[in-house]
Amino acid sequence: MPENTAVKETSEPVKAEAAPVKGAGTGKPRSLWSDAWHDLRRSPLFIASAVLILVLLSMAFFPSLWTDGSPTEADLANNYLRKPEWGAVFQPEWFGYDIQGRSVYNRVIYGARASIQVGVLVTLIVTFLGTLIGMLAGYFGGLLDTLLSRLTDIFFGIPFLLGALVVLTSFEKRSVWVVILAISFLGWTSMARVARGAAIQVKQADYILAAKALGASTFRILTRHVLPNALAPIIVVATTALGGYIATEATLSFLGVGLQEPLVSWGVDVAGAFRSIRNAPFVLIMPSVLVSITVLSFLMFGDAVRNALDPKLR
Hints:
The protein is mainly alpha-helical. The chain contains 12 helices and no strands.
């Protein structure tokens, strides 16, 4: 007799296929930074701001890609407050000429370097100084925390713009580095408060206590455990504040205590264009628009980074 080919019943339960887990198959667990980068790549806000920032950086570091002219070349006889020629795209006459017969377009391109340089370097100095003071105060606590916190409160109580005016007016010649150091001298307090709060929160974690029990040095604990885990809020504050420092430089230059001629910056051009605002408003509008676009780009970038690094906003 032929064997019965019917399927035999089995008592073993049927195993359902597991749903794919986010980040599975890579061999490594997903970290906060990898998750943040995964979200940033799909954020229209991040992509738009990153493109604008790359364009601005190319203007700052490679101005010859945008114009062949000189920002200081003047022809007062032929180009005095000459109106823009909107059809001459990327040409010296595109945005018109200022009160000294210089191309507004050329000066806008070359002015990006000083303005962005001030913003980036101030952010780096403020981030380093504020993070160092805040981490020391938050991690050690006690008397050191009291002293550093009161020092932070003293600087925080000084009106930022007024303090910068007082500091900068004491210098006869105000170079880029003078403006950078003056803004950094007064701008580190917010970063210190953020770093202190992050350090206080992180130092209570079990892995910090385990590192202490294993005999790890204080420097190793601060650099290998506290700082990496407190870095997310610091980066968010730094990227958001960068645009504000660029606006601060423009404001100080407009008030006459920031960068000076013959330096080329957006703030210097805004200050010089104010004298001809009634007859030639385009001289004032173009550098002001570039300042606004730059500040907006870094604010958008900071918001995108904050949304990606903050688990509560996921």
